[in-house]
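Subject line: Sequence and fold of a protein, written as C-alpha cells
Area: Proteins and the way their chains fold up in space.
Start of record: The labelled sequence and C-alpha cell lines come straight after this line.
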Amino acid sequence: MKFVIRRSALALLPFVAGEVQAVGFRLPNQDAEGIARGNAFAATADNPSAIYYNPAGITQLEGHHLSIGAYLISTGVDYTSLTGSTAGTDSSAQAVPQFHYVYSPGESAFSYGLGVYVPYGLGIDYGTSNPFATLAQDGSLLYLSANPVVAYQLLPCLSLAGGITLNYSEVELSRGIAAPGDQFRFNGDGFDVGFNLGLLWQPHEKWSFGLNYRSKTEIGYEGESEAFPYDQERETSASFDFPMHVVGGVSYRPTEKWNLEFNLDWTDWDSVNDSTLRGTFGGDQVFSFRYKSSFMYNFGVTRQLSGGFFVSVGYIYSENSVPDATFSPLNPDANLHLGSIGFGRLGERFGWALGYHFAYNPGRSVSGSGSSSLIGETADGDYETLNHAVNLSVRYRF
C-alpha cells in the first residue's frame, strides 16, 4: 500500500513547547528568579541565568557562581469540536533541567559563563482516540543548548557579551492514518550552531537597560519513519527553523529594596514558513506553517526583605503566533495571560529560589484550519489552555 503524507503529518514536527501557548514552542522560563518576576529579567540579569536572559549581566558577578535548577510543567489543553466531541492532554508533570556557571576573575574586565538549558521543547499527548487522531496523537521535542559566553565590562556602566549555542535536538511523533489501529511514526535527531549577544547599560544607580539577542537556527533531522502496519521503516529527513528573538528591558529601582522591570520580547516567527519531509512512503512533501511574528510583554516586581529574603510577582501577555489556516492541535497558540509569584533567599555563599506561574487562555475558536487528514478530520473547534509550572533553583558562590 502506498501512503501519502499530507501537511498534517509534519505539523507534528515543530513540537509544542511545554507551555502550549502563544510563545509558540519556545521555553523562555530558565530560572526560578526570572519566572517569579514574569521573565522580566534582561535589564537586571544579576545571577548566573543571565547567560540565557542577557549574558552581559554576568559582569555583575564576582568569583565563581553555580546555579542548578529544574522547571516542572503540567500542560492542560481542553478541546471541543464543532460537533461537541472533546479531548484533553495528559497533564503529567514534565521536567526541564537548567545549569549555569559563571567565573569573573579578580580585577579582570572579562567574565566567562557556561549555560546548559532547553530553550525549546517538551511534548503533548492527546491519546490515540481523540477526535483528530489522524492529525495528531502524541510526540515530544528535545532541543538542548550548551552555551559558552564571554562578557566584557567596557565601562563601569556598560557591558557587552557574546557566545555560541551548540544545539542538539530530537523529535518523536505519531498520528493515525485512516483505519483504527494504524499509525504514522517519525523519530529523528539533528545538530546546529547559533549565537547569542547581550548588552547591559546602567547609567544611573536607579536605572538599568538590557538587550538580549538569540540567533535563528535550522535543525536538519535524520531518522526513520514508518506507516504501521503498511510498510517497514524508511530513512527519513526533515529540517526546521527555530526563529531568532530579541528582548529589550528597562529596570527601575526607586530604592535598594525595590526593583520594577518591563521587557518587550519579539520572536521572528515569520521565518517559520515551509519545511520538507524527505524519504517518506509518499515521496517528498512540502509543508507550509506560515507563522507570524509576535510579542510578549513582561512585567516584574521584586521586593528585598530582611535576612537576604526576597519576594517577586510578575505578569506576561503573550500574542498568538499561529493563524487558523496553519493551526495544529500540537501547537494551540492563542493570546495568553500568565501570572507568577516566587520567593527565595540569597546568602553570602548559598542561595535558593522557588517560582510558580500559570498560563491561561479562556478559549480560542479555530475555523478553516488547513490541517486535513485522509479521512477528513480537521483541527477546527475550541481550545482552552490552563498550565501550571514551578521552578526551583539553588545557587552557590565559591
Q: What stands out?
A: Confidence is low (pLDDT under 50) at residues 1-22. Residues 128 and 137 are 5 Å apart (CA to CA).
